[in-house]
Design brief:
The chain starts with a strand and ends in an 18-residue tail after the last helix. It is of the alpha+beta class. The protein has one domain: Ribosomal Protein S5, domain 2 (2-Layer Sandwich). A four-stranded mixed β-sheet has the order 1-2-4-3, covered by helices on one side. A four-stranded mixed β-sheet has the order 5-6-10-7. Strands 8-9 form a two-stranded antiparallel sheet.
């Protein structure tokens, strides 16, 4: 089983997280931020990951620390569940439509952290969520699960739909990248022999 559990505690946030890469898409998400709960539930369902997140933070300030630290924790859990990445596809990509929104999500589990973010968001807020925090979430993810992630908005007018396409698309792209390729017979998919 490719699973990971972790607890991350700082002066700003406290996060408990469990992840099963080969799950059934079951999400139990409680972050104190309704929009983030919604996005992570979509991510789990469309990625086919079993994901439990219980986070509390200084939301009296804003959601910044909770969102960023949850991204860091999710990335660390992914890295832990992937282990040495033997037999994985390594690459995953999808162009995902969500009504008028269309977003490209591409992932390389390369061991090198990079985020290409070209996702113009028409609205600064969705409900009480600062939409610029979506980029902070994915930066946190790639820093703790070193990978090259490219997110590009190809079309979109509704900010909720655009961000929904990002999180659904990342679930699908990461599912593809993390999937085991039986032809690899447990080999690391790199001519270097390592993805670190």
């Amino acid at each position: 089983m490719r699973t990971s559990e972790l607890n991350r505690e700082t002066k700003e946030t406290k996060i408990g997280l469990s992840l099963n890469l080969d799950g059934a898409g079951k999400g139990t998400i409680e972050t104190g931020c309704g929009f983030l709960n919604h996005m992570l539930t979509l991510f789990a369902v469309h990625g086919g990951f079993d994901l439990t997140v219980r986070a509390s933070g200084d939301t009296d300030v804003d959601y910044h620390h909770t969102v960023e630290d949850t991204g860091i924790a999710l990335g660390a859990a992914f890295a832990g569940a992937l282990g040495e990445k033997k037999g994985v596809n390594r690459y995953g990509s999808v162009i995902l439509p969500m009504d008028e929104a269309l977003v490209l999500c591409a992932v390389d589990l390369s061991g090198r952290a990079y985020l290409g973010w070209d996702v113009p968001l028409p609205a600064a807020r969705v409900g009480d969520f600062d939409t610029e925090l979506a980029k902070e979430f994915w930066w946190g993810f790639v820093r703790s699960c070193p990978s090259a992630v490219h997110l590009r908005e190809l079309a979109g007018e509704n900010t909720h739909h655009i961000l929904e396409a990002v999180f659904k698309g990342m679930g699908r792209a990461l599912r593809e990248a993390a999937a085991i390729d039986p032809r690899r017979a447990g080999a690391v998919p790199s001519t270097k022999g390592t993805l670190l």
